[in-house]
Write a structure and sequence with these properties.
Layout: E1 32-33, E2 36-37, H1 38-42, E3 44-47, H2 48-51, H3 75-93, E4 97-101, H4 102-105, H5 112-133, E5 136-141, H6 160-179, E6 184-187, E7 193-194, H7 202-223, E8 228-231, E9 241-242, H8 247-256, E10 263-268, H9 269-274, H10 279-288, E11 292-297, H11 315-327, E12 336-338, H12 349-376, H13 378-386, H14 393-400, H15 405-415, H16 425-434
Parallel strand pairs: 3-4, 3-12, 4-5, 5-6, 6-8, 8-10, 10-11, 11-12
Antiparallel strand pairs: 1-2, 7-9
The structure holds D-xylulose and cobalt (II) ion.
Amino acid sequence: MKEFFSGIKAVRYEGPECTEALAFKHYDADKTVAGKTMKEHLRFSVAYWHTFKGDGADPFGGPAYLRPWEAAADPMQRAEDTMRAAMEFVSKLGAPFYCFHDRDIAPEADTLMETNRRLDRIVKLAGQLQQDTGVKLLWGTSNCFSHPRFTHGAATNPDAHVFAYAAGQVKKAMECTLELGGSNYVFWGGREGYSSLLNTDLAHEQEQLARFLHMAVEYRREIGFSGQLLIEPKPKEPTKHQYDYDAATVLSFLERHGLVDEFKLNIEANHATLAGHTFEHDLTVAAAAGKLGSIDANRGDYLLGWDTDQFPTDLYSTIHAVLVILRQGGLGQGGINFDAKVRRGSCDLEDLFHAHIGGMDTFARGLKIAHRILQDGVLDGFVRDRYGSYRQGLGQQIMTGRVGLADMEAYVLEHGEPEPRSGREEMLENLLNQYLT
Ligand code: XUL
Ligand code: CO
């Protein structure tokens, strides 16, 4: 069988002192932290579209490199070679999972029927390779944004025929995900938004989106897909405004349309920052509603301001992220998918390994540090104390919901002005830094 990464051996944990670049310094898959192995906590996944289909293109220049698995003349041969390369990479890296869009793994043909046949062929191969390697599918999804037919949206397209096309595509992608034992199915509304309000019936489009998601829920029941359904918020790009703007917007959309029990969220770092939030903000909003299902790990660039999808190497932000994950008791059947790509200038196959090793080590280190923070309990203890007034007297009465404005007025008339209390932000920032040893 063809080997695509022939010069590279399986990546191993060598410890923080090791100087070998192609080794883990912190990610020790079987090491137990807080009662679970790192592998079980972090559930890393490799993104098919970036790592195996990425060619270095950016908005100012076309492909910068041709991967060896993309060299064959026949598109289906390329698809097969790519799937083999993917399984080789993911198993050498030691990530348990991978993720794909339908169109990443098999190219579109002239008709939907032929496209689906192509998908069937590659899904069969993927199934065999999953068995051979032990690699598993974290989630599948459908690309309803790249083809020109989706220029004005998929579920929110003004043309019902396009809505039907997208729905048919999701049907098939869900079947493929089921067949490959996928743990989740993701909806990212790439063009579900608008470019101009002059030609847009926003209320109608949002109704359509809800109808589309209801159809997906009905179909998952019909075929017995028990994976978690996830919505991935993003505020814009390629649209000017995307309806799944951020975690808070998606949660209220789900609530309004009777979908909240069916979905959780897949929070992506660079999408949160594009929405003007921190990564931990959107994670916290999702987790506070009991809806943090999975993560697309990456990082933006403060100076560029678009979705640069860089690998996550910012330890600080990662500690915050892992704190949210640990506090909610883990990601369940979700995981940490590297929705990230190497830079245009990182043209070697080896760079794909460096990138993922860096991301995995950053999260592993974040996990160790976040666990220590929670074990020490100083941070959470401070927050608990800060709200202590709601566990007694006046505050306790407020929380029962049995008192009103007049009672509040009476309390203040009797007790006068509240005492100011410091939020100790600087002290807490210093405290956090103490853990970064
Ligand atoms: C795009 C993005 C997607 C989704 C899957 O910004 O994040 O790749 O993760 O469609
Ligand atoms: Co993503």
